């Protein structure tokens, strides 16, 4: 079964309820954080009390629970389709969500997903059309007071189509809120968004912002057993080393990382590392074949 705590926390944030208000007299702040991150479980009576504090019945919660992970799954498919430029998959998702719009199961999160899919479809299907879609992207995000994990995924999907200033206008307040409130339940989302912004600002020579976003990346500590995080961390730290320390060592480590991606059949990751390195002026050897 998927993480109940993750869904509980999304609902809490959507309803603008603080962790303290939710947990008071039920479980500790640290237990809640571990529950949300899938590190522990809570007693069934405590869980039901938490759900009640969200002004929900258990049946209502379970309905949202199913919808949350279906949406998360569809965002993963959308990301795959973008990376592989598979327009057919995006069109299938657009059709599925458009059909759902006329049912009583339609929610604001579904509408947001449909808008994201349509922007991606437009950009991938019109390679020569340089129409700026930033206003459409801005409309998707500006109405969101507090980002859910799925909203962070959506932002990363559309980041390529925004200027740095446009992206900053959307994401900076979210990251600042996270920093002020020290929210520990969205560390992974913050890490990956900050990493994307670090590379984007670095490529466009916005060194002041690049330093800021790298500091966020360096400050987030994810699960040491998470291979995905360890590989991303290796990429970010060695790119940072290239511009602040030993260029030769950094280049060699990035070449090793690319070879490791290839060995694991992670060709898209290897190609992305090559593309990013080229844009940054980091000359990796050409001997790797995908």
TrEMBL record:
Coiled coil (residue ranges): 247-274
Keywords, comma-separated and alphabetical: Coiled coil
One MF term in the entry's GO annotations: DNA binding
Domain called HTH cro/C1-type: residue spans: 8-61
CDD domains noted in UniProt: HTH_XRE
InterPro entries cross-referenced by the UniProt entry: Cro/C1-type_HTH (IPR001387), HTH-type_regulator_Rgg (IPR053163), Lambda_DNA-bd_dom_sf (IPR010982), TPR-like_helical_dom_sf (IPR011990)
Protein name: HTH cro/C1-type domain-containing protein
Organism: Fundicoccus ignavus
